[in-house]
Every structure is written in C-alpha cells, then in structure tokens.
Design a protein that fits this description.
The protein is an alpha+beta fold. The protein contains 13 helices and 13 strands.
C-alpha cells in the first residue's frame, strides 16, 4: 500500500501553483550563504572551528558541498556557502539540536552572523554540464511575492501558567512599527495551544532588522521579562549566549505560503497546531502545502491565505478564512481531506472520541482539537 508520506515525496518535482510565493517543497537545489564577522585576532580560531564543523556537516544527508571565503578587503569578514540537494534536508539539520551543538564553538570567535537561503533558479557552465545534471534540479520559475516576510517563534510555558502568560502577552503596548527607511512591522498574531505559544510576525523589508528592533523596545522587553519565570526552558535575556540559544530553538520558519486570487478585507485569522507523530513534521507540512495549493485555485474555498510553519515535529498552519472558521467546511479549514492521512501523520486521531462517527464528523473533531486560542492579532497602520 502506498502511504501518504510516499505519495507526497513522489510529488516534489511537480511545479507549484503560481499563487505560491514561498515554498521549500519544489525539490530544487538550495544555496545557503552565511556572512560572518569574526572578532579581531580570532581568525585562526574561527578557521579551526569551521574545519571541525565542516567534517561533521559532510555526513549530513542532503549536503552536497561548501566553501569558506575570506574578504580581500577586511580579514574579519568571512563568507560560508553551502549547497544542498533541496531545502528540506537542510532545514531538518539546521533546526536540530545536533546543529545547535555543532556551531557552539564558532560563537566564541564570531561577532555577528547573517544567514541567507536561496533556491537555485539558473546555472551556466561548470557542474550543470556534468552527467548528473538531471539530479541538479533548478527552481522552475521565479516566484512572485507580495514583499512581506513571514516568520514565527514558538516556545512552551510551565503547565498551569497558561492563563497568566496569555494575559501578559495580550496586555502590552505595541512597539513602534517603523524600523527604518526600508523595514516596517506589518502584523503580529499570537496564539496558544495548551502550553505552547506561537507568535507569527509579518515584516515588509528586512526580517533580521525587524527582530532586532522589536527586541530593543522597552514594552517588548518588559513582556519578555514578565514571562521568564513561566517558561519551561530557562533563559537570561541579559546573557547574549543564553538569548541566542533560546531564540535559535524558538525559531519556527515559514516553509510555504499561498494566497488565493480572491481576497476579503474582513477575513478572520486562525492558527491550527498539528501534533505530529515522531519524524513526520516535514511530511505533514508538505501534504498541507499541496492541499493549500489546490484550495487556492478553488473559488469555493473559504481559505484565502495560508502560511505553514514547521520545525522538527512542530507544525502550525496560519489561515485567513472568509466568513469565519465555524461556517467553513472542516475539510478545507483543516487542510486534510482523509482521516487516514490524519491518523498516519498526527496524533489527532488518538485524542479524538467517536471513531465510529462519519468522516465529516471526525474531520470536524480534528479541526476542533487543532485550533489554537487567539491571544492577540495586531496590525500596524497602513500595513
């Protein structure tokens, strides 16, 4: 029998819908660029740490090659580029605890880093002419976006503190939305599911600049300090290393975004949390992405926008729904059309009562279990 996971894996080479502005699931090669600013005098220490890291990365599935380059103008500036067979294996590695441990030796000699990830769209000469050219897949066409970058952070709080944390996160003054001449905060949507918090942000401009801007705002710092005693993972925001590790683990990248041609300014925003079975997070995210692509082309679908966030086995789907989720078809709102898919990839089936209910009844129950509680949804003026 062909499983859902196998069906999804076999569909990667398919060209994505033109309504998809962001996706890691088209099977094209990935180029990762890391800009590094090394402390003065620490170049040799950095080189030794890189060589150790390079030996470890060479055995990671999906890794193809990497290069280390030093600036000819400023010896403190370095560039690391790596090539991966596709985005999913890279994301599985970079979001893992293994990666956190691997890169730790680098941080004692690095002042700042900036990571950029690109799908390869065109290539001339060199490896493209090799016999394995068919395996070196390129992105089929450039994606057309809306100028908005989507990202999320997630963390858990101590059981029993959910109501306190929700109140803290709801009752704060919004930070100044204008970051600089080119970057602006557009929207922040915050949800909870049990003791898990998810904060999704939309930024026009530079994401890193926006995140740094927000972290320096007094009202945001006060909120972060207030929830510190309730976090399951300890952190000290006054310790750069503690803060870095916390936010590295909290990062919940957007892996897919699709927007339907039809829009409605009154559409309501919801978030769904899909408790996945072990090692099924990426497969579930890809299946949801395929379903959302199809829904974007269906004029009957109430889901007007969908962003899927995934890290390890944490999968969250943020959707804008016309007419509200209560009136929507649960199949379209949930993004899964078959209870068998739900059972294979998530634990929703385990938590749902009424196995003898109709298919529609079971999917409606799964939707109820997955739905997150809205804490706050804020838009900046003129966003």
């Amino acid at each position: 029998m062909t499983t859902t996971s196998e069906r999804v894996a076999g569909s990667r080479a398919r060209q994505a819908s033109q309504r998809v502005s962001q996706s890691v699931f088209d099977g094209s090669r990935l180029r990762v660029v890391l800009l590094v600013d090394v402390y003065d005098g620490a170049q040799q220490q950095f080189l030794e740490a890189y060589e150790q890291l390079c030996n470890q990365v060479a055995s990671v599935p999906g890794h193809v090659s990497d290069q280390l380059c030093q600036s000819i103008e400023n010896p403190s500036q370095w560039l690391i580029t790596s090539e991966w067979e596709s985005a999913p294996p890279f994301l599985a590695w970079v979001n893992s605890e293994e990666h956190v441990a691997m890169v730790e030796p680098l941080h004692s000699c690095v002042r700042d880093t900036r990571s950029l990830r690109f799908h390869v769209v065109r290539e001339t000469g060199g490896p493209a002419a090799a016999p394995d050219q068919a395996k070196r897949r390129l992105q089929t066409a450039p994606r057309i976006g809306d100028g908005v970058i989507r990202h999320a952070l997630t963390f858990t709080v101590k059981p029993g503190s959910e109501e306190i944390v929700a109140k803290i996160l709801a009752d704060y003054a919004s930070p100044e939305p204008q970051v600089d001449d080119t970057t602006r905060l557009c929207r922040t949507s915050l949800f909870m599911h049990g003791n898990r918090v998810v904060r999704a942000i939309e930024v026009r401009g530079d994401l890193l600049s926006a995140l740094r801007h927000v972290s320096r705002q007094p009202e945001v710092r006060a909120v972060e300090e207030a929830i510190n005693p309730h976090l399951e993972q300890d952190r000290d925001l006054n310790d750069p290393e503690s803060a870095r590790v916390f936010f590295t683990r909290a990062a919940l990248p957007a892996v897919h975004h699709v927007t339907a041609e039809r829009q409605d300014a009154q559409a309501e925003r919801y978030a769904l949390h899909y408790p996945t079975r072990p090692d099924r997070g990426m497969k579930l995210a890809e299946l949801l992405a395929r379903q959302d692509e199809a829904a974007a082309d269906d004029p009957r679908s109430p889901v007007l926008r969908s962003t899927i966030f995934q890290r390890d086995d944490v999968v969250v789907r943020l959707i804008d729904v016309r007419g509200g989720i209560e009136a929507a078809d649960p199949v379209q709102a949930l993004g899964l059309s078959d209870p068998g898919q739900v059972a294979e990839l998530t634990t929703l089936q385990d938590d749902a009562a009424g196995a003898s209910a109709s298919k529609e009844g079971r999917l409606a129950r799964f939707l109820e279990l997955a739905r997150m509680d809205l804490v706050t949804d804020r838009r900046s003026p003129d966003a």
